[in-house]
Amino acid sequence: MVVSPSRSKGIVSWPEGERPRERLLRQGAQSLTDAELVAILIRVGVQGASAVELAQQILKRFGSLRGLAEAPLLALLDVKGLKGAKAAQLTAAMEIARRVSVPSRRGQLVIKSTRAAADYLRERMRGLAEEQFRVLYLNRHKALLDDALIAQGAVDSVRPQLRSIVARALQVSASGIIAAHNHPSGAVEPSESDRLLTQDLIAACRPLGLKVLDHVIVGDEATFSFADSGLLDELELLCLAPGDARRPS
User: Fold this and answer.
1) Distance CA 14, CA 12 (A)
2) Per-residue pLDDT for 30 more than 50?
């Protein structure tokens, strides 16, 4: 739907049958364009542009709904007319969509293989503009107890606090964990920093009998598993060597 200049006075001035919210209630959400759906979320436009026109500008800037969903909050706040509540509403809606796309009933989701973990994490983390470090906490039956965002930030700046990871494991009575982080660049090959972090994590968990089951790196089209590659076993052996275990940061 292309909005003419005469419509810039605001959606309230449109014929009721053409307003996005009324059409959604009458015909269903599937009848609306991407811009109209976004317009309902941001509710009102700005001076000189209706909510639909503002939504069209937002989608043009980010390329698509997927681009909008993957945009960090700071990028949304940088859009003229998209401040405070509007940016918060969009961010919340996109996060709801992301969470709906993956299983959410914790305790009922069982992750028994590295493939299952990779599949879950790919849906959870693929396409993020910022780097995230997450930890899946599992019980002895491999049921998911918690999916926790431990750290988030610019690329190469995310360094999770190992004490926080261990403390959360104790809180939920986990017996095993799967660490994961994404590479916004799309590459999945682990860096030396990734290897050292994994070794530190193994060393921090070992005294508590907490098993590090895997560390998964998520890229655009692929994932890397420390367990499947054999790197996890190598790092566990290093932690067994006297003097090699690292303290939690």
Assistant:
1) 6
2) yes
- The answer to whether residue 179 is domain-embedded is yes
Structure tokens at 101: 């796309």
Whole-angstrom CA distances from 9 to 48, 53, 136, 187, 226 are 7, 11, 49, 47, 57
Q: What are phi and psi of 176, to 5 degrees?
A: -150, 155
Q: Say if residue 132 is in the same domain as residue 213.
A: yes
Nearest-angstrom CA–CA distance, 128 and 218: 10
Q: How far from chain centre, in Å, is Cα 157? A: 17
Q: What is the pTM of this model?
A: 0.62
**Domain extent for 224:** 104-240
pLDDT tens digit sequence for 106-138: 557 899 999 999 999 998 887 787 889 999 999
The candidate with the shortest Cα–Cα distance to 83, out of 50, 49, 45, 48, is: 45
Shared-domain flag, residues 71 and 186? no
